[in-house]
Write a structure and sequence with these properties.
Elements lengths: L1 H11 L9 H9 L4 H19 L1 H13 L17 H11 L1 H10 L3 H8 L1 H23 L7 H10 L2
Helix pairs in contact: 3-4, 3-8, 4-6, 5-8, 6-7
Protein name: Zinc finger BED domain-containing protein 5
C-alpha cells in the first residue's frame, strides 16, 4: 500500500524524495552493533529464554529472587519480533544479574553463568542497556497523534 502511494506521488512530481520510516532507521542502526556486542546480546537473550522456556525454571527463578529480596518480580520474555522490548529485557537482566548468576550456578549452566560473572561481559550488557534505553525513548517520542514529518525528522537528526 505504501509503495503504491509512493509510486503515485512520484508519478505526479519527480522532485519528491522518498524516505524509509524514521523509526526503522533506529532498528537498522542496532543491527550494525559490533560483533562482540551482538554476541553478548545473543547470550543474554538465550539465558532469558532458558529461564522462561519452562515453568519449572520460571518458578525456581521466582523463588530465588524472592528469597534474595530482588527488586523486580520477573524477567521479561524476549522475542525478536518485539524489538522495542529488547531495552526493557536488557535493563531487567542487568538489574537481576546477581540473581541470574546464582540461578545458573545452581542449574549448572556455565555458559550462562559466565555472562553474569565476567566483568567485561557485564560492562557490555550495561552499555547495551544504555543504547537501547535511549533508542526506546527516541522511538516513543517519534510516536503520537501530533507527530509530523518535520518534527520527527528533527528529533531523529538530534539523536545522531
Amino acid at each position: 500500500m505504501l509503495i503504491e502511494f509512493q509510486s503515485l506521488v512520484l508519478n505526479e512530481s519527480e522532485k519528491v524524495i522518498g524516505t524509509h520510516c524514521i523509526i526503522h532507521w533506529q532498528i537498522l542502526a542496532t543491527m550494525t552493533l559490533p560483533q562482540e556486542l551482538q554476541d553478548v546480546m545473543q547470550s543474554v537473550i538465550s539465558s532469558v529464554n532458558f529461564v522462561n522456556a519452562s515453568t519449572l525454571n520460571s518458578r525456581l527463578f521466582s523463588q530465588l529472587y524472592n528469597e534474595l529480596d530482588a527488586p523486580n518480580s520477573a524477567l521479561l520474555f524476549h522475542t525478536e519480533v518485539r524489538w522495542l522490548l529488547t531495552g526493557k529485557v536488557l535493563k531487567r537482566v542487568f538489574e537481576l544479574r546477581d540473581e541470574l548468576k546464582t540461578f545458573f550456578n545452581q542449574k549448572a549452566r556455565p555458559q550462562f553463568e559466565a555472562v553474569f560473572s565476567d566483568k567485561s561481559e557485564l560492562q557490555k550488557i550495561a552499555y547495551l542497556v544504555d543504547i537501547f534505553v535511549i533508542l526506546n525513548e527516541l522511538n516513543l517520542s517519534l510516536q503520537g497523534p501530533n507527530a509530523t514529518c518535520l518534527n520527527l525528522s528533527e528529533r531523529s537528526d538530534h539523536s545522531k
